[in-house]
Amino acid sequence: MKSPFPGWNRNRRELSVLPLRQRLLSVPIPLRPTDSPARLDLQALVDQAYASGRYDDLDYSAELDPPLAPDDAEWARAILTATHRE
User: Fold this and answer.
1) pTM, whole model, 2 decimals?
2) Which of 27, 34, 35, 68 has its CA 20 to 30 A from that of 76?
3) What is the pLDDT of residue 2?
């Protein structure tokens, strides 16, 4: 399947908005006009960067600027508590 926004058409963009709690998307990466786009799993990429980085050293209890919405803050606090990072 050809992407409607090929990389060689630099004036076209694709925007995906999703809630904080939703898994990141797998996005098409255009190659050549005759090839189907390759898929890039953004969530897997972020998960790998987190696992390989030094993110355990961060202070996850620090206040955010701007702060999360109250229901998202409670969701994040529950994750931090479950993973012993709070």
Assistant:
1) 0.64
2) 27
3) 52
